[in-house]
């Protein structure tokens, strides 16, 4: 037994857990303006502080600690906010597990009073819930603020069309590509991920859960013949977004109880993107407006010319393909459409 070594382990991980909690607390406080989440992080920090006694602090020997010189490329940069929050949730959870295990050893040897191991265990389970609220919740919160959904198509200079649409205010993009190799799709997804990060937009992958996971997409969009939602959720986890296409009242009713985060409603008008699907019409839009209790997007042949009709039928969110991907000026078209959709009017240019 080495009491001094155990004391240093407890000291380092109390520091690590408290620092990570402070990072999470600040986002709850200033980013989400969530008083309850901020308060919970603060209470956990303060509870850990009570165990950070002088004997543990005095055991610290920073100059002789080889761990201060160790680093990892993922620790040296943060790709985006979700990456930052995920890293600090993991940091706290790992530190709490160390405190739980070495706390048991310290308690059995009477180096610390009983209670630290149990406290760390309870906090670790609380962190799982906080992690869901921060990451899963933040994605769903961002989904709620998305009114114009861009679905990509393989046009020339497709990425340029996407960026121009993002400049016009689009905050949700679905990558849809059917005729490329997996490697080529992954290359394009990497480019799209970087672009969406730059404009703080959500990135969804059509159909392919494997590519969504590899590319660190924010979610996946499924059709009626794709993998069942329950299996998709099991693979993606609770934090990622899942969308589901619906084309008739029966599919809509099933989707509303399937555990998806949003629904596609259409095709409203005939569209070559869904050449095998007859138009569902504005009546289906009216039904969705009456029945849907989660975000839904009218889709199929919608553009700046018929958007007013779709809005009058009850749609507050729409998804488009050709209207932006083939627009002469995607930025201006996106701004024009968002001017009709957004409660606060046309967005400022990025």
TrEMBL record:
<dbReference type="Pfam" id="PF02581">
    <property type="entry name" value="TMP-TENI"/>
</dbReference>
<dbReference type="InterPro" id="IPR016229">
    <property type="entry name" value="TMP_synthase_cyanobac_bac"/>
</dbReference>
<feature type="binding site">
    <location>
        <position position="274"/>
    </location>
    <ligand>
        <name>4-amino-2-methyl-5-(diphosphooxymethyl)pyrimidine</name>
    </ligand>
</feature>
<feature type="binding site">
    <location>
        <position position="226"/>
    </location>
    <ligand>
        <name>Mg(2+)</name>
    </ligand>
</feature>
<feature type="binding site">
    <location>
        <position position="245"/>
    </location>
    <ligand>
        <name>4-amino-2-methyl-5-(diphosphooxymethyl)pyrimidine</name>
    </ligand>
</feature>
<feature type="region of interest" description="Unknown">
    <location>
        <begin position="1"/>
        <end position="126"/>
    </location>
</feature>
<feature type="binding site">
    <location>
        <begin position="174"/>
        <end position="178"/>
    </location>
    <ligand>
        <name>4-amino-2-methyl-5-(diphosphooxymethyl)pyrimidine</name>
    </ligand>
</feature>
<dbReference type="InterPro" id="IPR034291">
    <property type="entry name" value="TMP_synthase"/>
</dbReference>
<feature type="binding site">
    <location>
        <position position="301"/>
    </location>
    <ligand>
        <name>2-[(2R,5Z)-2-carboxy-4-methylthiazol-5(2H)-ylidene]ethyl phosphate</name>
    </ligand>
</feature>
<feature type="domain" description="Thiamine phosphate synthase/TenI">
    <location>
        <begin position="148"/>
        <end position="324"/>
    </location>
</feature>
<dbReference type="InterPro" id="IPR036206">
    <property type="entry name" value="ThiamineP_synth_sf"/>
</dbReference>
<keyword id="KW-0479">Metal-binding</keyword>
<comment type="function">
    <text>Condenses 4-methyl-5-(beta-hydroxyethyl)thiazole monophosphate (THZ-P) and 2-methyl-4-amino-5-hydroxymethyl pyrimidine pyrophosphate (HMP-PP) to form thiamine monophosphate (TMP).</text>
</comment>
<keyword id="KW-0784">Thiamine biosynthesis</keyword>
<protein>
    <recommendedName>
        <fullName>Thiamine-phosphate synthase</fullName>
        <ecNumber>2.5.1.3</ecNumber>
    </recommendedName>
</protein>
<feature type="region of interest" description="Thiamine-phosphate synthase">
    <location>
        <begin position="127"/>
        <end position="350"/>
    </location>
</feature>
<dbReference type="InterPro" id="IPR041397">
    <property type="entry name" value="ThiD2"/>
</dbReference>
<feature type="binding site">
    <location>
        <position position="206"/>
    </location>
    <ligand>
        <name>4-amino-2-methyl-5-(diphosphooxymethyl)pyrimidine</name>
    </ligand>
</feature>
<dbReference type="InterPro" id="IPR013785">
    <property type="entry name" value="Aldolase_TIM"/>
</dbReference>
<comment type="similarity">
    <text>Belongs to the thiamine-phosphate synthase family.</text>
</comment>
<comment type="pathway">
    <text>Cofactor biosynthesis; thiamine diphosphate biosynthesis; thiamine phosphate from 4-amino-2-methyl-5-diphosphomethylpyrimidine and 4-methyl-5-(2-phosphoethyl)-thiazole: step 1/1.</text>
</comment>
<feature type="binding site">
    <location>
        <position position="207"/>
    </location>
    <ligand>
        <name>Mg(2+)</name>
    </ligand>
</feature>
<keyword id="KW-0808">Transferase</keyword>
<keyword id="KW-0460">Magnesium</keyword>
<dbReference type="Pfam" id="PF17792">
    <property type="entry name" value="ThiD2"/>
</dbReference>
<feature type="binding site">
    <location>
        <begin position="271"/>
        <end position="273"/>
    </location>
    <ligand>
        <name>2-[(2R,5Z)-2-carboxy-4-methylthiazol-5(2H)-ylidene]ethyl phosphate</name>
    </ligand>
</feature>
<feature type="domain" description="ThiD2">
    <location>
        <begin position="8"/>
        <end position="132"/>
    </location>
</feature>
<dbReference type="InterPro" id="IPR022998">
    <property type="entry name" value="ThiamineP_synth_TenI"/>
</dbReference>
<dbReference type="GO" id="GO:0004789">
    <property type="term" value="F:thiamine-phosphate diphosphorylase activity"/>
</dbReference>
């Amino acid at each position: 037994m080495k009491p001094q070594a155990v004391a240093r382990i407890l000291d380092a991980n109390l520091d690590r857990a408290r620092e990570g909690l402070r990072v999470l607390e600040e986002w709850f406080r200033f980013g989400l303006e969530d008083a309850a989440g901020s308060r919970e992080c603060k209470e956990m920090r303060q509870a850990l502080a009570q165990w950070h006694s002088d004997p543990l602090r005095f055991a610290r020997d920073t100059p002789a600690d080889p761990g201060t010189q160790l680093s990892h490329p993922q620790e040296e940069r943060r790709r985006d906010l979700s990456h930052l929050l995920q890293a600090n949730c993991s940091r706290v959870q790992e530190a709490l597990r160390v405190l739980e295990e070495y706390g048991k050893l310290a308690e059995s040897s009477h180096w610390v009073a009983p209670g630290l191991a149990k406290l760390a265990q309870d906090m670790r389970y609380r962190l799982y819930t906080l992690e869901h609220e921060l990451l899963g919740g933040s994605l769903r919160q961002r989904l709620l603020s998305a009114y114009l959904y861009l679905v990509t198509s393989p046009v020339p200079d497709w990425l340029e069309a996407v960026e121009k649409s993002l400049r016009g205010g689009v905050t949700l993009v679905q990558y849809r590509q059917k005729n490329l190799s997996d490697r080529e799709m992954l290359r394009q997804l990497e480019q799209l991920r970087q672009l969406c990060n730059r404009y703080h937009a959500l990135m969804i992958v059509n159909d392919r859960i494997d590519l969504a996971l590899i590319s660190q997409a924010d979610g996946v969009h499924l059709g009626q013949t794709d993998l069942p939602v329950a299996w998709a959720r099991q693979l993606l986890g609770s934090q990622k977004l899942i969308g589901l296409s619906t084309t008739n009242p029966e599919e809509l009713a099933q989707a509303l109880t399937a555990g998806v985060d949003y629904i596609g409603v259409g095709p409203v008008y005939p569209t070559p993107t869904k050449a095998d699907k007859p138009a569902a019409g504005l009546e289906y839009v009216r039904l969705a407006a009456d029945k849907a209790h989660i975000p839904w997007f009218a889709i199929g042949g919608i553009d700046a010319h018929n958007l007013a009709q779709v809005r009058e039928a009850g749609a507050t969110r729409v998804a488009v393909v050709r209207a932006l991907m083939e627009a002469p000026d995607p930025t201006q078209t996106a701004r024009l459409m968002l001017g009709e959709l957004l409660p606060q009017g046309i967005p400022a240019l990025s």
